[in-house]
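User: what does the whole thing look like in 3D?
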Amino acid sequence: MSLSLQQRLNKRSRSRVGRERTNWWATGILGICALAVLAPLFVTVSMAFKSAKQAVDGKAFSLPKPFSIEGFTAAWNLVNFPRAFTISLVITLVAVLGAVLVASMASYAIHRNWSKRFYRFSFYYLLGAMFLPFPVLALSQVKLTGLFGLDNPAGVAILHVMFGLSFNVLLFTSFLRGLPGELEESARIDGASNWTTYWRIIFPLLAPMSATVAIFAFLSSWNDFMMPSLIIAEQADQTLPVVQQLFQTQFSNNYHVSFASYLMAMAPSVVAYLFTQRWVMSGLTQGAVKS
Amino acid sequence: MTLTAPAKPSSGKKHAAPAQPVKRQRIDATYFGFLVPALICFTIAIAVPAIMGIFFSFTDSVGFGDYNIIGLANYAALFTDPAIIGAYSFTIGFALVTVVLTNALAFLLAVGLTAQIRARVALRTIFVMPMVISGIVIAYVFNFLFSNTLPTVGEHLGIEVLKSSLLSNPDLAWLSIVIVTAWQAIPSAMLIYIAGLMAIPYDLYEASSLDGASAIGQLMHVTLPLIVGYIGINVIIGFKNFLGAYDIIVGLTNGGPGVKTRSIAMTIFTGFERGDYAYQMANATVFFIISLIIALLQLRLTNKGQAK
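Assistant: Here's the predicted 3D structure for the full assembly of 599 residues, as structure tokens:
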């Protein structure tokens, strides 16, 4: 997807070379629009590095002077950052691995056995939940997770995997249908078991789709607020986005502390995105178009 | 319900399979192992709560203890409850406005990003960034801007409306939610539009410019008609997502002032607090039916798009 997109752009710019020059108007307008995206992020960073004395005035766009990290040290302890971060990270890792492995295995089983009624039924059964928004199930799920002793981060991770399952199975099965069967056949002739065929042949072939699934699973799990805030009963076990609530009720005037905390909550996904930008972009486009 | 039906053939098939191995394919435990655990978890995590929800919506349960089946009474009460009507009209109105704003801006950005511009990669990287940021956290940042920075700007410019916080203005608080929601939702719509614009053959632009079409004329008569399917998909996806609005509202107004900006999801969650368990289950069921209708519309649109 991204390749053809990129190729097209390159092609287009080549074909236009000499006839049309850079559109400075468009560049300028887009630059101004980019400021609207960056402004709140700039405010977050600059507020976070202010000293307590300077932050009190609440001037959003002034630069930190002097540069101070006291907000970070305070926020680190106040929200127990290491704990919240670790809990968020573990939930997200389980959700991403679960999304890729559970959905690809289920999809492979369904794809291979499409002629059997049970697998066909299962496919439509899983798909049926694609349109169920979380608020619809929330009340019952809170009750059930409490009953099963899963009103904790483990429960949230499981629910994240299960909520993504419908859409991910749809993505994987449609991708599997487009794969050539020869590799798989030759593996079978060589006596590979079903598991070996899946793990050695199919799973690597699924890589591009797995990347898309993983990116979406990462973003929706890492940034989720609704589900952990309702499911996790113990306040000390809350995830990074949820613990930010603390600053709405207490410490509401220590802007440097709250913004340092917001920045620490945002930074991991933004930094991860910037480093994997190219690769993520193709995954996002693919997922966005398919959804 | 049809949801539980597939579970039965599974056990039936399992036992029946050895009796009919002649049918070319031998039954394989690996495939079962791949699928069945996922099906069981899915049933407990998704299907059971869904059925529970629908069942309890016909009762007077408060979330625990005894309950009686009371038929459609909860539903009848829903349609005359000002809190529910308020939440539905707020959420639907907010979703409509946000869909229009998001798509208009996303489309223009996509057109800009596929034009002959400088710093394309850098700009695109910036525009996609809101997509990776947590909704609640960015809402808290905007909360600060709306309640501290904007009033200061209002003081300086002498604009009366802006002098007090936008978030506590009963008539305009919704606008803050629209702005932040659009800020975050634009990237994914924009990526879809970019993909759509990339799919338009360049020859069409060459031909129309030979015929003397202006840039605006090309936009209206070449780009728009060819991208109309993508607009449909974006509008439906956006509308569906905005109807479920929660995080950003919690971060900005928390439903206030009063209950002016309380969304459907927020009313459903009050079922925990006030013993409205069964009543809010009925609310959730109505919300589900609405989501389902939108989803079916989306499916129809997507299929149409593929058929073309």
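In plain terms: Chain B has a mean pLDDT of 85. Chain B has one domain: 82-307.
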